[in-house]
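FORM 7B: Structural annotation worksheet

SECTION A. Query
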Amino acid sequence: MERILLDEVIQTDYGQFDLVWADTGGFDGDVDRFFEGQVNGLVGSADSSGVYVNLARRSGGSSLRIVLRDDAPEADDSYQDVVEVSITIPPGAVVQWMSWAGETSGVLAEIPPGSYRLRVSARDRDEGASGECADGLVDAYMLEFGHHPSAPTPSSEWAPQTPSTGIVNGATVDSPRTHTHVDVAGSAVTPSGEFSSHTRPDQGGKPRSLTVCSG
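SECTION B. Predicted structure
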């Protein structure tokens, strides 16, 4: 069973989308704060006050859905990139989402405090990075919260149902799929094309240059 908490086109800048549950939450440019111990560049979850999601399209608008689930999410091959992280929302905290500089925001009151497995699935990030001026939507994201009493291992039901290509806790796993799995203890990285969606912003990620659209 799932509950859709947000289903919108997110208008932001610098591709910034944050989930926060403390006053100190929100990506502030300190890459180490959010990506410490991780290799991927899609989801920064190292900070205890929130999670940073790096949208591929800088400011043209990206489709984003947030879901609260009672069971493990099913595999969806329409998403090229999948990252999972473990997070803990402390007692008394309220989860909010916000775009760059808090220009748009909202409350996700349906997510109670506790330990969660968060799966972030991304579609067409390469196209989103190069399609700033494209008509209509390009890239899309699904964020799925699953309540979990403790952080599961990579082999748990929350792990991708098929192998991933990349490095998982130091072990190389080969598969033709491009799903990326990040667990609580480490991370995995899978090349997905021109846009460096799996590289930390300070370690090879494509710079966010301003594109002026004409017409």
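SECTION C. Observations
The chain is about 5% helix and 30% strand. Residues 120 and 196 are 16 Å apart (CA to CA).

SECTION D. Sign-off
Analyst initials: ____
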